[in-house]
């Protein structure tokens, strides 16, 4: 339940920030990035001790692939995260109606002239880096575990500033799948599914290169 609520709040805030920028144009891309990164850090802080504070199917998948999470837990978390994405999109539609529908319920967008392959590559690389931060600060006990949420929030903020106008800087399928399906906008959904899922493969790589090797040493 905590994972569902935290993910719902995160997706709702990200969609709200995008819509606010579309409706009024006062916060700009940097403001959107700050809203996304800061809310992610706060919600990870708030939910980590209850449910893990993952808020992202790609992160959950990375932990499962690395053997850091059971099959059953991974399945339930991903279901909760995806359900939260739909719930957040439904809330946005309920509040704003057709006005939000015109902007795809706050769904991110791929920049004009950006090829799908390039957008997928950016999403994969940025998600891999996010997974690196997760493992280095939350999984690897040699890292600064108490600062994990802060590190994640700072990284997500910077990645969003860098790539919002290019690939949408999603790094998280939960941010896109609910708004995309409910607004019936599937054109770029593959970018935000394939990219983050590919990036999650860095999880087992970190496990093998840094954690298992470190134990042997």
End-to-end gap: 40 Å
Helix content: over 70%
Instruction: Please identify which CATH superfamily we are dealing with.
Output: Glycerol uptake facilitator protein
Order of helices and strands: HHHHHHHHHH
Rg: 16 Å
Number of strands: 0
**How many helical stretches?**
10
* Overall tally of structural domains: 1
How would you describe this protein?
There is one protein chain. Helix content is 73%, strand content 0%. With 217 residues, the protein is mainly alpha-helical. It has one domain (2-216): Up-down Bundle (Glycerol uptake facilitator protein). The chain is globular.
Summarize the structure.
By secondary structure, the chain is mainly alpha-helical.
Characteristic terms for this protein:
217 residues; mainly alpha; Glycerol uptake facilitator protein; 10 helices; 73% helix
Helices and strands in order:
Elements: H1 2-24, H2 28-51, H3 57-65, H4 71-96, H5 98-101, H6 116-139, H7 148-163, H8 177-182, H9 189-199, H10 202-216
Helix pairs in contact: 1-2, 1-4, 2-7, 3-4, 3-6, 6-7, 6-9, 6-10
